[in-house]
Amino acid sequence: MLKDLIKNLKPSSTLMINEASKKIEEQGKKIFKFGFGQSPFSVPQDVVEELKKNSYQNKYLPIQGLNQLREVVAKYTSSKKNYEYNSSNVLIGPGSKELMFLLQIIFDGEIILPAPSWVSYAPQAILGRNKIQIVQTKRENNWFPTGQEIEEIIFKDDKKNYLLFLNSPNNPSGQVCERLDEISQIAKKYKLIILSDEIYSELCFKSNFKSISSFCPEKTIISNGLSKWCGAGGWRLGYFIIPDSLNDINKMINVLASETFSAVSAPIQYAAIKAYKNDHRKYITKSKNILKAVGEYVYSNLKSNKILINKPQGGFYLMPEFLNNKFESSSEMCNNILSNTGIALLPGSDFGFKPDRMLARLSFTDFDGQKFMDQIDENEKIDNDTIKKLAPKIVEGVDILNKWSESL
Amino acid sequence: MNKKLWEASLHQKRNSNLFRFEKFLAKKFNYIPEQNFKKLFNWTIKNPKMFWSSIWEYSNLKGLKKDKFYLPKNIMKSKFLIQSKLNFAENLLSKNDNSKAVTFISENGYREEKSWRELNYNTIKVVNFLNKIKIKEKDRIAAYTVNQIETVESFLATSAIGAIWSSCSPDFGTQGVIERFSQIKPKLLIITDRYYYNGKEINVLERLPNILKKIKSIKNILIINYPGKRNLKPNKIHGVKIFFYKNLKNKKETEISYKKFDFDKELAILYSSGTTGKPKCICHRAGGVLLQHLKEHKLHCNVKEGDNIFYFTTCGWMMWNWLITFLASKASIVLFEGFPMYKKNDLLFKIAEKERISLFGISAKYIDQLKKLNLKINNKYKLKYMKTICSTGSPLSPDSFDYVYKNIKKNVHLASIAGGTDLVSCFVLGNIYSPVYKGQIQNNGLGMNTDVFSEKGKSLINKKGELVCKSAFPSMPIYFWNDKNNQKYKSAYFKRFKDVWHHGDYAEKKPNGGYIIYGRSDTTLNPGGVRLGTAEIYSEVEKFKEIKESIVVGQSWDNDVRIILFIVMSKNFLLTDVLFDKIKSQIRKNASPRHVPSKIIVVKDIPRTKSGKVVELAVKNTIEGNKIKNIEALANPEALNQFRNLKELSF
Ligand SMILES: Cc1ncc(COP(=O)(O)O)c(C=O)c1O
């Protein structure tokens, strides 16, 4: 009784790796959860308090989101980008993922996905019945497409509408896109709009995160939320910022929202106001410093002639490539790693790479973020000893992976 | 005067490994190949990390490479490719087919050849044996062996399991062997039963009881027969197990998985000459030595797969280690054992022609001898395959440069090379881009910031001074054995100049980047180009009750160095002919034939410092008519007078 379209979808590989890990854990073996990307940090205390205070809020809120919240989000965003957004540009949803899904449903055209891309873009495009065009990226371009590579796709049929998913800092590569200007030129030249998934932007290791929206604001939808920087993935609150020039999209997502989730949970929206209104720079700086130190630890201790990695630039991930011809596919390799070492990684094929490229995503969040944060000062330089003490599983896992790679 | 003797053709340069390496760098870094050695050299000094890491990649080493370095100002503490892992033997066993890997030739022409497959197979055989007798990582294995294929296999097997190798050739006397091996407490002694020198058979097994009496750590003995001869049987010895190499078995394995060790894993212990006290045990690392040798072989010697490499050496000299590593470049090696002029002055060239040697390595002293005999090699031998002649051990004199081009081969890369046991490799050597100038070593090694310093540590050009190295390099010793807090290590190289390796060679640097080396700047003896320590002579002389005191120096003589022993007689004794012969024969037996003095001269007193140390350098300078430095440090400077204008030293 299932639709063919649906039948062919598989459960997300993130979930599969968790199940496989659990099985191994039940056999009494130690598991290194380097597969799943979840913030290691707790939600800031003031935001938690605000949620408690607002637990009584029981009314349906406006479909587009609580006005006050949209206002602070618009203000917060405008202060970071050189573009003036107001509350009408903001759309609150139960996670940015859901909003992206609705965008796929309403959009008529082709979807351009760089490989690597986050695992959910492609299935959502399929559900939205949009054709997918994959751009294979290169390591030397930070695993992002170049303007030319995008143009080559559009050039074949420039009558169509195109929607490019650009996720920087990137899941899975941990890289930041540098060719924003060149990509924006293409957007301006063709019927191309960009979904700029900036869910990791607050966790960009360099302070001057640049968004494509600063280069072509009229053609960019910004996507963001509480899930990553605020450690509140489970709260399910994300937002879109849609410029006036794309007002049709804004309107139609609202229509679909009213027919699906109605509105995001009220207490969460009230608490989110505080998340954007209060000053959380200290919390964010500490998070970034810790992630940067741990990420660079993994990078510098893992990279070798057999393991190529680009230095992480933001977020929770890096993407090692294990040079070998022992395995047929990256998923076979990841299974081998999991069963031999207890280290869970996601294969590069899940992110759109050809299966014979031995890439994998490594999430370096298997540590107690709250404890780590409590034990360091805001601007403290985090040395290897601190990492050994506060993120021991990361250190151990890296050692084990190194040993494993010797046999390649 | 710079007289150019040879330069590679454009074709040779374009087809060289050096150019290939430059192109390799160009692909990876912002580097433009120009076939200019100086430019490449400068790049390697500016970018040591990229350079050494590139050597690994260019050589396609098996293992895990981590581009982590620690290169502080204090170069002694430097670390290269930290956490990288490899297995030395696995990388030397770079092929596993039926082509020729190693050839043995003895002085009388007996020849054996082994393929890569056999070499792999036999190495595994020895690995199995070492495992069976429970040799573990870092255990020492001592080899008192002939330069034969089994020695190579044993060395490979030792490094394959992470044990530490240490070898002496059989021309070392019992005492010399005990002085060396007793310091490192080996668990296994590998010994060749006998050897031949100039037709004479010498039994080595006879020495076993004395050695075992003094080195109690040896619990197992592996006896190798001299190639082509039946095993000599030892007498039963209590408390040790005896095995025979030819009885070792392999379970038909031709491949095993080699454990990868740290880049800094100990490989071998080599011995300093023992100038002051016992010979120092210099412990070298597997990864660093491999990388350095690959650089020297591939880039400086232009060695390629299938080349046949010959070096006249024994396993008691660092050039043996240098020779064996050629296997890592997929070249085949030729081992020679015995007297190089046995029955035929040009014996080695006969071998070179027959074996199609592409790189022919000998000591400078050997070339000097050919020159003295006025041999016209090129009239007799074709030497079509000979691309490179390496000369080392002592400085190659300008006349010998001429001799090589005139009488051995016109179109050949003559590379005079110099380094030492301390680094099992070279500071200065050859390259295919630069011309060969008469009397000059072509250049520094890539990545080696070698220089010549004045006493005050100022860089000198066109002036004689101390050879130093201002950069760290991966084949520096890891440490000296039994050297608490690295005291001996530090004082051996880093006492003279701060954070700069002081090598103790007397050298001159030319504006074109070439080097001339004049010999050791300290008192080490160097007859025939082999570094010898005086201590081994002293320890013998001391045993004579007839002799009260002695001092031994090297006298520059006939483009070589000869050993002069001065003695002060004890009361009521004279230096009779009987005593004279007894001193010589005891030194020959217990130290080595090379240690035997050319002259023994009686004096009344020996100059000493105020703290009682005899001062060889002052004596050497006196007999050679040079100025004496630091005379105020002497307790009895008047003693020097007897050494002036000695008649005995003029013939
Ligand atoms: C690249 C990327 N985009 C979006 C999301 C989803 O975020 P949300 O929790 O807002 O749905 C994630 C989370 O895994 C992500 O990695």
Structural overview:
The complex is a heterodimer of chains A (408) and B (651). Chain A starts with a helix and ends with a helix. Chain A is built from 15 helices and 12 strands. Chain A has 2 domains: 10-34 and 281-406, Aspartate Aminotransferase, domain 1; 45-277, Aspartate Aminotransferase, domain 2 (3-Layer(aba) Sandwich). With 408 residues, chain A is an alpha/beta fold. Chain A is 41% helix and 12% strand. Chain A has a 7-stranded mixed beta sheet, with helices on both faces. In chain A, helix 7 packs parallel to helix 8. By secondary structure, chain B is α/β, with parallel strands linked by helices. Chain B folds into 3 domains: 4-87 and 282-519, ANL, N-terminal domain (Rossmann fold, 3-Layer(aba) Sandwich); 116-259, Rossmann fold (3-Layer(aba) Sandwich), CATH 3.40.50; 527-650, 2-Layer Sandwich (GMP Synthetase, Chain A, domain 3), CATH 3.30.300.30. In chain B, 28% of the residues lie in helices and 23% in strands. Chain B has 19 helices and 31 strands. In chain B, strand 5, helix 7 (149-160) and strand 6 (164-168) form a beta-alpha-beta unit. In chain B, helix 17 (535-541) crosses helix 18. The model of chain B has no long low-confidence stretch (mean pLDDT 92). At the A-B interface, helix 15 of A face loops of B. Bound molecules: pyridoxal-5'-phosphate (PLP).
Order of helices and strands of chain A: HHHHEHEHEHEHEEEHHHEEEHEEHHH
Number of helices of chain B: 19
What is the typical, i.e. mean, pLDDT of chain A? 94
Termini separation of chain B: 31 Å
Helices and strands in order:
The complex is a heterodimer of chains A (408) and B (651).
Chain A lengths: L3 H4 L5 H14 L18 H9 L13 H14 L9 E4 L2 H11 L3 E6 L5 H7 L3 E6 L10 H9 L6 E6 L12 H10 L2 E6 L22 E6 L12 E4 L5 H13 L6 H12 L3 H22 L4 E2 L8 E2 L2 E2 L7 H12 L4 E2 L12 E4 L5 H7 L8 H7 L1 H15 L2
Parallel strand pairs in A: 2-3, 2-4, 4-5, 5-6
Antiparallel strand pairs in A: 1-7, 6-7, 8-10, 9-12, 11-12
Helix pairs in contact in A: 3-10, 4-10, 5-6, 5-9, 7-8, 11-15, 14-15
Chain B lengths: L3 E3 L3 H5 L2 H12 L8 H10 L1 H12 L25 E2 L1 H5 L7 E7 L4 E5 H17 L7 E5 L4 H12 L3 E5 L5 H11 L3 E5 L1 E4 L2 E4 L4 H7 L5 E5 L16 E4 L16 E2 L3 E6 L9 E5 H15 L7 E4 L6 H7 L7 E6 L9 H8 L4 E5 H9 L4 H4 L7 E5 L5 H11 L4 E4 L1 E3 L4 E5 L6 E2 L5 E2 L5 E4 L10 E6 L9 E2 L6 H7 L7 E9 L5 E6 L14 H7 L5 E11 L2 E10 L7 H14 L8 E4 L13 H8 L28
Parallel strand pairs in B: 3-16, 5-6, 5-7, 7-10, 10-11, 15-16, 15-17, 17-18, 18-19, 30-31
Antiparallel strand pairs in B: 1-22, 2-12, 3-4, 8-9, 13-14, 14-26, 20-21, 21-23, 24-25, 25-27, 27-28, 29-30
Helix pairs in contact in B: 3-4, 6-7, 17-18
The structure holds pyridoxal-5'-phosphate.
Pyridoxal-5'-phosphate binds next to helix 5 of chain A.
